[in-house]
Amino acid sequence: MQAAFLVAHQGTEQVELTKPWRAVTAAGGTPKLVSTSAGRVQAFHHLDKADTFPVDLTVAEATAADFDGLVLPGGVANPDALRLDKRAVAFIKSFFDAGKPVAAICHAPWTLIEADVVRGRTLTSWPSLRTDIRNAGGTWVDEQVNICTAGPNTLITSRKPADLDAFCAAFVSEFSH
């Protein structure tokens, strides 16, 4: 299993990157960190700087064909920056176009809205995205994890770091098919 983790240069919630990363590794898979620029990305613990992580590929170098699925960690700043980057949005959309599973947690569905892939889908997120998801044509639910198969691919979403165990189990199972 090859899993792409897409994050902006800074702002990803560290635990939403590291715990799913460990879940992929524990399942015998290979995670790759994809970002908008080369070098290292700065993770955060809420609003405080945390660790940095090396980028494996930029969005200009990576393609959906190289991966079995895409993980979109949250954090408030991370998805907000990604949705302004046309190549990052195109990279996300390419997984939907290829019918490959996508997993998004917390604020990460903002990037799905920007990629115009939530219409007709059911998903969960951090509660403040509820109206954004509905306005984009999606159905928002308040669940620990939601697995939506009403589209070209499976979309796995979760609300927050407390949901990470269920989130990781769901997407690792789906990516392993």
From TrEMBL:
Transmembrane segments: none
Segments forming domain DJ-1/PfpI: 2-173
Domain of life: Bacteria
Keywords recorded for this protein, A-Z: Glutamine amidotransferase, Transferase
GO molecular function, one term: transferase activity
SUPFAM superfamilies attached to this UniProt entry: Class I glutamine amidotransferase-like
Family: Belongs to the peptidase C56 family.
Record protein name field: Type 1 glutamine amidotransferase
Annotated organism of origin: Streptomyces inhibens
